[in-house]
Structure formats: C-alpha cells, structure tokens
Amino acid sequence: MGILAPITGRLFDKIGGKPFAVLGMLLIVVSSLFLSCLDTQSISLTISFLFSMLMTGNALILTPLTTSAMNALPLSLIPHGSAMNSATRQLFAAIGTAIFVSLMGTKASLEQGFQFTYQAIAGLASLGFFLALSLPRKH
C-alpha cells in the first residue's frame, strides 16, 4: 500500500477515483475467489501472490475513495467528515473481523472456514464493484 499511495495520488488528480474503485474492487473479488480455492497443499508463493493482489486492490480503493469523499464536502464539514471516516473505519474493522472470524468457525475444518470466509468476502466485494460502477467519473 505504501508503494502505491503516491502513484494513486498523482493519478487520482488526473482521472478521479472511479477507475481506482472499479479496478480495486475487481482485484479484491478475483483474488478472494482464488483464495477461496486454496487448500492445505497450496504453495506458499501462490498464497503470497494472491494476498498481494488482494492488498493491491485495497490500496487502489482506500486512498482515492477517501479523497473523493473529502472533496465532496464543503470546507466547513471536512473536519467532521475526517472524524467520521476515522470512526467508521475503526468500527467496521472491528465488526468485520468479528463477523469473518465467526464465519470461519461455522465450518468443520479450518480449511473450509477460510474458503467460506473468502467466498463471503468475494460476495461483498462484488457488491462493492457494482457500487463502484455507479460512482461519478471525476470530481
């Protein structure tokens, strides 16, 4: 994420946040689907590549979409928007972790739990992908 942040920042100024959101969500969907197919015999390099792909998708959506959201606010509301952004990220990180760990525990084996959880992530990311398609082209 640290490597992509300056690049996405520069490109965001030129093309807006929608292309990053669409590509990022697509990467999350695809990598999550592939991660849901892994088993205990999977090669470490494959797991590392797929997880890197997932994190690249995260990097492509987080900074550009946060910037888009802040740019949509009037100057007087930016401090409140920033505070709400921080609070909701913390809240949903905690809730998301609890939900996905619970999903993992619903299956008989840890392997099945991971597979089911990544399928759920892919499903949620698919919704995010379609929402990203509805974003305005550029602010």
Automatic annotation (TrEMBL):
GO terms for cellular component: plasma membrane. It is found in: Cell membrane. The keyword Transmembrane applies. Signal peptide: none annotated. Residues 1-139 form the Major facilitator superfamily (MFS) profile domain. GO terms for molecular function: transmembrane transporter activity. Keywords: Membrane, Transmembrane, Transmembrane helix, Transport. The keyword 4Fe-4S does not apply. Its main location: membrane. It is a multi-pass membrane protein. The chain crosses the membrane at residues 20-38, 45-67, 116-135. SUPFAM superfamilies: MFS general substrate transporter. InterPro entries: MFS_dom, MFS_trans_sf. PANTHER family: MAJOR FACILITATOR SUPERFAMILY MULTIDRUG TRANSPORTER MFSC. This is Major facilitator superfamily protein. It comes from Streptococcus dysgalactiae subsp. dysgalactiae. The lineage of its organism: Bacteria, Bacillati, Bacillota, Bacilli, Lactobacillales.
